[in-house]
């Protein structure tokens, strides 16, 4: 885990409806550009964030969902973006299975979580029957 030196103030967005995904993407784009991520890395972070936000809409429907996004500073002053997705939904029963390509409880492709993990530099999930939190980090090269 990289050392956090000077964390910038964070932005918080509610994730309750389809329209909120647009704002999540816009904020991830703005923060990743500000942190100096290249266009390809910006797009990877946005794609991962979109999947996690969509999961909140799909699986935590009606529960409070939100994302906190902020710039972080790691080793040797390297900048990055951290996004923390939280919901008060039913939680993920089996995290190992949820991270397996093709596993879906909704007839989806089952690629959201494992795909997101591949697109970012760090991803941690904690989940209980009271809700789920997924943290992703992408660093500037
Ligand atoms: N926030 C969440 N709360 C509860 N369960 C979740 C949450 N996110 C994911 N899951 C569970 O993990 C499984 C895998 O998620 P993943 O995003 O990889 O696939 P999917 O959503 O089923 O399909 P896809 O994302 O490819 O359309 C889901 O089917 C669901 O059971
Ligand atoms: Mg999904």
What descriptors fit this protein?
single chain, 141 residues, alpha+beta, Heat Shock Protein 90, 5-stranded antiparallel sheet, 5 strands, globular, binds adenosine-5'-triphosphate, binds magnesium ion
Low-pLDDT stretches are none
Beta strand count? 5
Helix content: 25-40%
> Count the helices. How many?
4
Q: How many angstroms separate the termini?
A: 17 Å
Overall average residue pLDDT: 94
This entry's quaternary arrangement is single chain
- Round the Cα radius of gyration to an integer and report it: 14 Å
How many separate domains make up the residues? 1
What small ligands are held by the chains?
A: adenosine-5'-triphosphate, magnesium ion
Structure at a glance:
The chain is of the alpha+beta class and 141 residues long. It has helices spanning 18-34, 39-59, 95-98, 112-119; strands spanning 11-14, 65-73, 79-87, 122-128, 131-139. The protein is globular, with a radius of gyration of 14 Å.
């Amino acid at each position: 885990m990289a050392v956090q030196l000077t964390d910038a103030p964070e932005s918080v967005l509610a994730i309750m409806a389809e329209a909120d995904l647009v704002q999540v993407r816009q904020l991830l784009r703005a923060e990743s550009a500000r942190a100096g991520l290249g266009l390809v890395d910006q797009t990877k972070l946005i794609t991962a964030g979109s999947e996690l936000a969509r999961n909140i809409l799909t699986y935590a429907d009606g529960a409070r969902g939100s994302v906190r996004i902020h710039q972080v500073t790691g080793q040797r002053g390297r900048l990055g973006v951290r996004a923390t997705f939280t919901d008060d939904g039913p939680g993920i029963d089996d995290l190992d299975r949820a991270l397996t390509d093709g596993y879906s409880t909704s007839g989806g492709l089952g690629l959201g979580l494992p795909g997101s993990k591949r697109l970012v530099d760090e991803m941690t999930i904690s989940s209980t029957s009271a809700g789920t939190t997924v943290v992703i980090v992408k660093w500037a090269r």
